[in-house]
Amino acid sequence: MAEEGSQVEEGPLPVLKWDQGLFEQITRGFRFSPEWDAQYPRQSQIVADAPPGCITLFEDFFLQGNFRLPGTEFMAHILHYYGFHISQMSPPGMVRVRHFEFLCRSHGLEPTVERFRVFYQLIWNI
């Protein structure tokens, strides 16, 4: 039996186990509202097991991608424009979107998809 927080080989890719302490640190440190009902997944749960009306967010979004809740309207516009779900964003992609938004706001500009597309283009990695 593997210890919590370790990798276990199951199938073609290693399964990463959650760490309850890190989950609590993120929900407390990033001030998750109790009404969001953030839930620590059961050991056997996978990303696709999120209950109806819930989404799965990865720790990398917060720790590496500078993502914060509640999400901004600009992030919602980006996701809608490109037609993908928040769970499909990589941490580096999240950093680009957030960095662009910070720069616009620091210069008194409203971040828009049109402005974002002047500097960035979507590259599909399959």
Features:
126 residues; mainly alpha; 5 helices; 2 strands; 38% helix; 6% strand; globular
Could you say which overall geometry the principal axes of the C-alpha atoms support? Answer: globular
Question: Helicity level, as a percent range?
Answer: 25-40%
Count of discrete alpha- or pi-helical segments spanning 4 or more residues: 5
Separation of the first and last Cα atoms: 33 Å
In the predicted model, the low-confidence regions spanning at least 5 consecutive residues are 1-9
Largest sheet: 2 strands, antiparallel
**Radius of gyration in whole Å, from Cα?**
17 Å
Q: How many independent structural domains?
A: 2
Order of helices and strands: EEHHHHH
Mean pLDDT: 82
* Structural class based on helices, strands and sheet pairing: mainly alpha
Domain Transposase (putative) gypsy type: 58-122
Organism: Helianthus annuus (Common sunflower)
InterPro entries: Transposase_28
Protein name: Transposase (putative) gypsy type domain-containing protein
